[in-house]
Amino acid sequence: MSFRLATKNVQASQRLNVQARNLTTLKQRVQELIPERQKEALEVKKLAEEKKHSFGENTIDQMYGGMRGIKALIWEPSVLDAEEGIRFRGLTIPDCQAQLPKAPGGNEPLPESLFYLLVTGEVPTQEQVNALSEDWAARAQIPKFIEELIDRCPKSLHPMSQFSLAVTALNHDSAFAKAYANGVNKKEYWDTTFEDSMDLIAKLPTIAGRIYQNVFGEGKHAAIDLKKDYSHNLSTLLGYGNNEQFVELMRLYLTIHSDHEGGNVSAHTGHLVGSALSDPFLSYAAALNGLAGPLHGLANQEVLSWILKMKSQIGEDASDEKVREYVWSTLKGGQVVPGYGHAVLRKTDPRYQAQREFALKHLKGDKNFKLVDQIYNIVPGVLLEAGKAKNPWPNVDAHSGVLLTHYGFTQQNFYTVLFGVSRALGVTSQLIWDRALGMPLERPKSFSTAHLKGILSK
């Protein structure tokens, strides 16, 4: 046996051992929690029946308004409050930054630690997070046919289309699909859903990195380091692994973009498709297609384009008055100020604030951040004066593009792919519990305009 083959066999054996050892860390905890969470769900339903509690009648205005504000979903990993922003299993973003384990010498939470929190509702130990990092690294390799599938895509095919295509193809090896075909008991659906979810999350950086290098790089593909964390490996695959600040930015970015309760397009789509018992790969591919829309995941790209256009017209060291005039010209031209306002939030998005604090620490002197800072201090007042927004404050998209650009990551068409890597943490966390709690097929009732007109005329 050659030395190279022997080394490969040893590495394969190590990956299997790491996978088996670390799998029990999170998976056993989920198995322990399932009876408790099932009992809790039954208690809530029973209590609601006893008290005859409901969230009121939906209005026709809501039906025509994209179901905005209709309270109709169960979503375990996070809840969005209009005033305080997102809470991940009860923890705010500052709570997560303070309590969740970090990389050695790092200041931002590891996405692995957030995933553990989203799944279990518990803050993990450093050892549990390290185990999860090793497990994901061990699962990160993608099948050869998917490598070839990505490599055959023309560079002109949008990175999100390639991303969704590759994630869909992972269905080829779905543990859930195989178990369902073999007649597995419904009570065990969660087990293979967990396995598929772990495989999906683990392989996303490999897929994203390959797409990035094919479209924007020289087609050179780095290897996953079994001893590095998820964000470090993603950064390396993108060609930025030697920049520790960029790696830290990825840790922050993946954490704060991971989940935003269940009503947003990508989360709801993943939940809806999963309710038909589609496996996690098919469910998340559908979620990615929703995320690719300009009213969802493309928003940060639109913000950056608006900022760069402003800078080209008024200069990089423009006065506050020049910025204010440009904002007014945007509004008077019948356009919105991108990155400001939110469907739910009524204050500055804590995700924006977390990115702002990162920029204040690392981006001093950056001309684009200077402009973002001016916009932050000027736009809310203009929007309030114009009466254009219930919420004149910035959301997460108002900042992320400038942070990425600072480190030379200027390929805007790829920004949504990074969002897609992150959002898998929240969607799969819920999907595991959808299976464990036996959540049914989602099938709301619909009416035609003519039917509603008939009801209203009676």
UniProtKB/TrEMBL annotation:
Any single biological process term in GO: tricarboxylic acid cycle
Keyword tags: Transferase
GO cellular component: mitochondrial matrix
InterPro entries according to UniProt: Citrate_synth-like_lrg_a-sub (IPR016142), Citrate_synth-like_sm_a-sub (IPR016143), Citrate_synthase (IPR002020), Citrate_synthase_AS (IPR019810), Citrate_synthase_euk (IPR010109), Citrate_synthase_sf (IPR036969)
Pfam families: Citrate_synt
Location of the active site: H296, H342, D397
GO molecular function list: acyltransferase activity, acyl groups converted into alkyl on transfer
Family, similarity comment: Belongs to the citrate synthase family.
The name this protein goes by in its record: Citrate synthase
Native species: Wallemia mellicola
Lineage: Eukaryota, Fungi, Dikarya, Basidiomycota, Wallemiomycotina
